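// run 5 | inverse folding | seed 20
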């Protein structure tokens, strides 16, 4: 099941390597953890508005988040970083820019930015390469700048490190469907559209967020939804020619943004799937043919997200795997922790719920730099690239 393959030049970690990560579960040794400093609720814009439900407390609000909430978010993120360091994991942190600054390009204007709590959204690590994603929110256009000092340092320290930036999209109105701008869209209408793969983003130019990508060794599984379009998936396919890139979608999700609260690999052969957003039967075939087990995730412990939070209660699934036997779970998500414990893992409790509003959970708030291990082929029955 786990034949080693050479997915990329310089794919194997060598002495002194700083950057190397092929999957979501090999032993984690170096990671980036985000910060809440200066985070904003951005002004209205097409892709962002499509994400916010009609009855959400986010509607009509924008501006810097309260300092008390920022301080609390940083307190929890700092504690999380310390927990990882106590386990021997090296932790780097981004350098926030001034997110109150407006962004003006020849194609759009927005009055403020977002933040740098969720590095997973921006940075995609595949082997010895880190790609800066295109992003599909205008307010996140310059977010990569928070990570550039780190990436520049990695480039100086690691002669095998490849720092790549996907082509910056123009993000004109042509990138978004005006149908989604109506705040009165019902959940039923949204579900009908997502089942038809009719999302807020068009196919005008390649768009993808890094958090829509799961790395399973030689295979990359990419969610087609609000933040990643088919052209973005095709860009990834061309950029990683030694990988097999698979587009997936989850018709039960009325707000399909990022895959890591929907489809969560824990180790080779084992995945959790959001029971409200099941992978369609025809897309399950690649997993079933290689004897992978897809289990329904446990129910969230909360009936609603924290105040002023974009994410759903299913951040319960947004866990961080430290190695094939150890998983970080948010402290209050007792049902998810119990399920993972019964599957034979050591559960590490991490308090992070009060930081959810800044961009997500444990997986979202991190980006891999180095995991021990090689590029494996976990789906050997599939045809070669």
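// decoded
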């Amino acid at each position: 099941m786990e034949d080693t393959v050479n997915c990329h030049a310089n794919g194997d970690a060598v002495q002194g390597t700083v950057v190397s990560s092929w999957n979501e579960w090999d032993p984690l040794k170096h990671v980036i953890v985000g910060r809440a400093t200066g985070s904003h609720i951005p002004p209205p814009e097409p892709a962002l508005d499509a994400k916010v439900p009609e009855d959400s407390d986010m509607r009509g609000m924008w501006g810097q988040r309260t300092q008390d909430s920022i301080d609390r978010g940083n307190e929890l993120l700092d504690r999380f970083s310390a927990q990882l360091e106590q386990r021997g994991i090296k932790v780097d942190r981004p350098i926030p820019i001034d997110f109150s600054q407006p962004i003006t390009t020849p194609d759009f204007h927005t009055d403020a930015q977002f933040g740098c709590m969720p590095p997973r959204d921006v940075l995609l690590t595949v082997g010895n390469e880190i790609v800066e994603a295109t992003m599909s929110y205008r307010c996140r256009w310059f977010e990569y700048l928070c990570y550039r000092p780190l990436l520049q340092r990695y480039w100086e320290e690691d002669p095998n490190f490849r720092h790549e930036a996907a082509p910056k999209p123009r993000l004109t109105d042509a990138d978004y469907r005006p149908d989604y701008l109506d705040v009165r869209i019902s959940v039923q209408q949204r579900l009908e559209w997502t089942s038809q793969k009719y999302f807020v983003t068009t196919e005008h130019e390649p768009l993808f967020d890094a958090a829509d990508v799961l790395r399973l060794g030689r295979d990359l599984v990419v969610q087609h939804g609000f933040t990643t379009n088919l052209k973005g998936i095709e860009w990834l396919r061309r950029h990683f020619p030694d990988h097999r890139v698979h587009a997936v979608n989850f018709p039960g999700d009325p707000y399909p943004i990022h895959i890591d609260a929907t489809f969560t690999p824990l180790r080779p052969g084992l995945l959790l799937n959001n029971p409200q957003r099941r992978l369609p039967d025809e897309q399950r075939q690649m997993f079933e043919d290689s004897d992978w087990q897809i289990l329904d995730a446990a129910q969230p412990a909360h009936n609603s997200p924290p105040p002023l939070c974009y994410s759903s209660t299913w951040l319960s699934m947004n866990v961080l795997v430290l190695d094939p036997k150890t998983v970080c779970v948010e402290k209050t998500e007792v049902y998810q922790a119990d399920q993972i414990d019964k599957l034979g893992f050591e559960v590490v409790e991490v308090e992070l719920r009060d930081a959810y509003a800044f961009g997500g959970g444990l997986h979202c708030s991190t980006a891999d730099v180095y995991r021990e291990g090689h590029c494996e082929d976990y789906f050997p029955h599939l045809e070669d690239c």
